[in-house]
From TrEMBL:
This is ATP-binding cassette domain-containing protein. Pfam families: ABC_tran (PF00005). Keywords: ATP-binding, Nucleotide-binding, Transport. GO terms for molecular function: ATP binding; ATP hydrolysis activity. The lineage of its organism: Bacteria, Pseudomonadati, Bacteroidota, Flavobacteriia, Flavobacteriales.
């Protein structure tokens, strides 16, 4: 394995587990726009990794490459020991079944109730479940996000924060090994954002999932991340704990913390 440009190893990180996800020298361009420029990093089993960066830094493209929505130009992306860049679409779908995705918008089906949204996702990923098993699973995840009473509501009846919670419930219902959070606090007021942050922390404890959190929100990064990497122009500019990043001597990294 190639060493990261900014290796940070501490006792807490070592206690989390073996690498579950690994990017090895990954490049991605769209035409003349170089988005990822040879990034290498790992995510350990049970770890919350925050990918921090401003718009256009490459953080969302990294996730698209991870789930196979974009093909890499060069490099390897390894999940559970398999290089997904070498897999066909059927094999990638098998890997995707292990991943729960919280979209920035929540991305619920507007024509379905909360129950139907969650049941549809479960039935798509887990075959041969009876109605009792589906109902139990739906109620369990809604309880874990604190919204069991919303089971028969339509998405249009939900606030932005509630939609995020239901989106997270939908990600959790397949019992994923990996959860990807795309700007989980984006567009939320301060109080609701704090609630989502606490929920992410709670989910980590309940599910012991491995998570990647894409954000430009420093507060979210501080309270949800075991480790943080900061991308700029498709390269890793800094890596470490929140305290490490906050005390980094790089002027550009310091600019993240300027009010």
């Amino acid at each position: 394995m190639k060493a990261n440009k900014h290796p940070v190893i501490n006792a807490h990180e070592l206690s989390i587990g073996e690498p579950l996800i690994e990017f090895k020298n990954v490049y991605k361009s769209y035409g003349n726009n170089k988005v990822l420029n040879g990034i290498s990093f790992i995510v350990k089993k049970g770890e919350n990794l925050v990918i921090l960066g401003r718009s256009g830094s490459g953080k969302s493209v990294a996730v698209k490459c991870l789930v196979g929505l974009s093909e890499v130009d060069k490099g390897e992306i390894i999940i559970s020991g398999e290089d997904i860049t070498l897999l066909n679409e059927e094999e990638r779908n098998r890997i995707r079944m292990k991943i729960g995705f919280l979209f920035q918008s929540g991305a619920l089906y507007d024509s379905m109730t909360v129950r139907q949204n969650l049941a549809f996702t479960l039935q798509h990923n887990k075959k041969n479940l009876n109605e009792q098993d589906i109902e139990a699973a739906v109620r369990e995840v809604l309880g874990n996000v604190g919204l069991e009473d919303a089971i028969d509501k339509m998405p249009s009846e939900l606030s932005g924060g509630m939609r995020k919670r239901i989106g997270l419930a939908r990600a959790l219902i397949i019992k994923p090994e990996i959860i990807i959070y795309d700007e989980p606090t984006g567009g939320l007021d301060t109080i609701t954002a704090r609630e989502i942050i606490e929920l992410i922390r709670s989910i980590k404890q309940k599910y012991n999932a491995t998570s990647i959190i894409i954000t430009h929100d420093l507060t979210c990064a501080k309270y949800t991340g075991d480790r943080i990497i900061i991308l700029k122009d498709g390269v890793i500019r800094a890596e470490g704990s929140y305290k490490d990043i906050e005390n980094n001597d790089d002027d550009w990294v310091k600019s993240f913390f300027e009010k």
